[in-house]
Specification:
This protein is mostly helical and about 80 residues long. It is built from three helices and no strands. The longest helix has about 30 residues. One of its GO terms (cellular component) is membrane.
């Protein structure tokens, strides 16, 4: 793996991850808004389901990243 990761490459990786998450979140919100207009009774349930799924996804990501940092070390986990 990578033993030393340049700061500029780490910054580009972080920006890429944040942009990917923002695009996914905007797409999901647009789908929920469209479906909420079509079926008004499901609007609260869809928002709650989105929040629960997002929370579980965040927890899973934190778990995996913590495991990788423990297993590989901080530099290698960031490079991964």
């Amino acid at each position: 793996m990578i033993s030393t990761l340049p700061v500029s490459l780490a910054l580009v990786c972080f920006i890429g991850v944040v942009c990917g998450m923002a695009i996914a979140t905007a797409t999901i919100d647009a789908c929920i808004a469209k479906r909420s207009i079509e079926v008004k009774e499901l609007a609260p349930e869809l928002q709650s389901l989105r929040g629960v799924c997002l929370s579980f996804g965040d927890l899973f990501g934190f778990f995996v990243s913590g495991f990788l940092v423990h297993l590989l070390g901080p530099q290698e986990a960031l490079g991964f």
